[in-house]
Amino acid sequence: MSRVQSKSPPTDEHARRIARAIAKGRSPPFSTEFDRYCESSPREIFAAFTGAARHMPPAGKDEALAIGYLFLLQRLLEHLRYRTDRGYADAAKLIADFQAEVVAQVDAGHVDGRMLTLVAGALHQSKIPASPELAGASAKHPFDQDEDGPLPSDVRAALADILDACDGDPFMAVGSLIETGHAMPVEARGALAGALALAGSPEGRGAAVLFLLDPNSAVRRAVAGALAQVAASLTPTEVRRLIAMRNWRPENERAEVDAVIRKARAAGIDCAPWQAGSIEAIVATAVDGSTAQGFLLISPAGRKKRISSLLIKGGIADAWSGEPESRRRIEMSLAAAGMDAPTLAVSRSYLDRTVAHQLALSIEKREAPPFGLLQVAETIGGADWQPARMAFGETLAGLIAEVPKAMREPAALASVLRKSDDLTDLEVVAQSWFEDDPQIAQAVERARGRDRAKLADYLLQSVIARHRDRWAEIVLRTALWMREAPEVADLCWRELAIVAKALADGRDMTEIGLMRDIALRTIAVLGDTGRGSGAAYSDQE
C-alpha cells in the first residue's frame, strides 16, 4: 500500500476511541469536532482502510480495532459523498481513486475477500455505488470464509445458513445480504435475490419479497420475475407486504408486483391484517441546509421500547427499526439526536404527510425507498403511506391564512422581512443554512478580500437567487415543523411563512434579512475555511 505508508496519529486515535466505545457496548463517540475532522481530512480514507486491513484477522490480531477503523472509514466516505451530492468533482475523483486503490490491493494479494466485503459494506452504508472495477474484484475474490470455515459452495445452502443465522428475520437477512453484496455485479445480485425466492424455503421467499425494494431496478425486476413463479406459496403476511410496497415502486415497475399479487390471490391466499403496534412519541429534527430531516419514532415493545428512524432528503434516504431496548437506552438515543440538530415532538399527521411527500419525490426519480420503511410501518402497527406530493402553493397559503392580518400589512411585512435574520428561534436551526456547491465556492474564492456586505449582495442577486425555490422550500418546511410545537412556545413559524412567501413571490433577496444571513454564513464557511479551494482533496503524495 505504497501511497498510504505514512501514519496519521489523529486517524489512529479516532479509530482507537471508536473501538473502545464499541467494546464497552456504547455508540461510537461521534461529535461536532469529529465531523470537522471528517470534513477537513478526506484523504484519510486511505489511512483508515490501511488500518482496518492491518488489524483485521487473519492478517492482523485486533479485530476490535479493525472495526474501529472501518467505522471511521464509513464516516469519512459519507462526508465525501455529501460533497459529491453538492457537485464537487474533486470528491468524486477521490472516491474513484480510493476504490481503485482497494482493487489494486486485492489483486496484489494484500487484502482478502473478507476485507473487500467489509469495505463494500462501508460504501453501502455511505450510499456510494461500487465502481465496475470493485464489482469485478468482488466477483473474482468472493468472501470465502466465515467463523466456522469455508462458505458452502452451493448457493442455496449458503443462503439457508444466512437465514438461519438471522433467526429467520427477513429484514435482518436482507440487510446483511444487501450490505455484503454491495460490490457484487448487478446480475449476480439479481440472481442471488432470485435464488432466495426459488430456494424452496418459506424464509427465503419472505426475504426475497423485501428485495422488491432493492436500490437497483434490475435487481427489483429480477426478484419480481422469480416471485411470480412461486406466488402460490406466499404467506398472507407476504401478500400484505406486496400490497403495502406496490405504490412505493416507480410506476413502470408496479405491474410486476400486481402480477405476483394476482397469482397469490388466485391460489386462495388472503391478505393478512397489520399486526398490533403503536407510536408513543415522534421526534423530528429541524430541516438542514441540504433539505435533510430526521425522525425518531418510539414504540412500546412489552416492557421495553423500540426506536425506529427515518431520514428524508429529496426522498426517503434511510429507514430502520431497532431491537427492543430499555427506557434508559432510548432516552440516551433521543438525547444524542438532540445534540446534532434541534428537535421537536411532532404529530402523526405531520409524519404521514412528510413521508407521503418524500415517497413521491423518490418515485419521480425512479427510485424505491429502502426496505426498512416497511419494517417501520409494521413496527408502528401499519401505515397506509401512499406517495402524494405536498403542493407548495396550497401549503403556503394555508399557513399564511393563519398569520394575523396586522403582520401582513405592507409596513409590518417589510419589517418582518428586514429583521428575519434576528429570529431567536432560528439561532441554532439556521447554523447549517448556507450554500455549498462548486459555482458558489468559485465566486467566493474569486472575491476573496472583497467587502463582505457587497459580496453578500452579489451572491443574493446571482448564484443564490437561482436557488430561490430550494430556500423557499426549506423555510416553508421549517415553518411547518415549528407549527408542531405547543402554542405556548410561540415559535416564529408565522415570520417564516412570510419569508417563504416573499421568496416564492420573487422578492429581492437583499431585502430579506434571513437570506442576507445565509449569504454571510456562506462566505464565512467557504471563504474562511477554504472549503471551496479543494486543497484538502488534492493529491499529497
Mean pLDDT: 88
Q: Order of strands in the sheet with the most strands?
A: 6-5-4-3-7
Low-confidence sequence ranges: 1-7, 144-154
Strand content: 5-15%
- Major β-sheet, in short? 5 strands, antiparallel
Helix content: 55-70%
Number of strands: 7
How does the helix and strand content classify structurally?
alpha+beta
**Judging from the principal axes of the Cα atoms, what is the shape?**
globular
Number of continuous helical runs: 25
The Cα radius of gyration reads: 25 Å
The termini sit apart by 13 Å
Descriptive report:
The chain is of the alpha+beta class and 541 residues long. Helix content is 57%, strand content 7%. The protein has helices at residues 9-23, 32-40, 44-55, 63-85, 89-107, 113-125, 132-140, 155-165, 170-180, 186-198, 202-210, 217-229, 236-246, 254-266, 327-340, 348-364, 372-379, 392-402, 405-408, 410-418, 438-446, 452-461, 468-483, 493-504, 513-528; strands at residues 145-146, 149-150, 281-285, 293-301, 304-312, 316-321, 343-345. Helix 1 (9-23) packs across helix 4 (63-85) and helix 10 runs parallel beside helix 12 (217-229). The chain is globular. The two termini are 13 Å apart. Mean pLDDT is 88; it is low at 1-7 and 144-154.
